[in-house]
Amino acid sequence: MSETTASAASANSRPVVVAESATTRGRRARIALRALQVLIALFYGVASSLPKLIADPSAVDSFDRIGWGSGAMYTIGALELAGAVALLVPLLQSVAATALSALMVGAFVVQMTVFHGENAATPLILIIPLALIAWARRGQNRELLRVLRRRA
């Protein structure tokens, strides 16, 4: 049989044609979602957390303007890096996307209040793919809870 047919457990045992486009579409969607996760993880791991963790002058200036200092800068950089790594771990994908979304809500509030809306669209734009990842990978949350309960 070809990839587009499967045996049916019926009385006449005739092959049932499976829509090839549905299988291909599902595979493409999984690949696209995984590619999106990798891109978002690269963004958070390199473009967002790295300047904070190496104390790039622009990051230092931003956190000084906020009034939070270097401790908050390193903490947020570490959270972003942890989220980036967790986006690539199957068991943590949904939780990581949710946590990074919450971080982006905070970033939006800071952009609106401290920086008067400058670059406020960036965190909002990032929430969209993060919400998609969190929703699409929500099934992993059950497995994560099972693992955590087993260890407790």
Q: Give the SSE string.
A: EEHHHHHH
| Rg over alpha carbons | 21 Å
End-to-end C-alpha gap: 48 Å
DSSP summary: helix tally: 6
Query: Considering DSSP H and I runs of 4 or more, what fraction of the residues is helical?
Result: over 70%
Number of beta-strand segments: 2
Secondary-structure-derived class: mainly alpha
Segments where pLDDT lies below 50 for 5+ residues? 1-11
Fraction of residues in β-strands:
under 5%
Overview of this protein structure:
The protein is mostly helical. It is built from 6 helices and 2 strands. It has a two-stranded antiparallel sheet. A hairpin with a 7-residue loop joins strand 1 (5-7) and strand 2 (15-17). The longest helix has 34 residues, at 20-53. The chain starts with a strand and ends with a helix. Mean pLDDT is 89; it is low at 1-11.
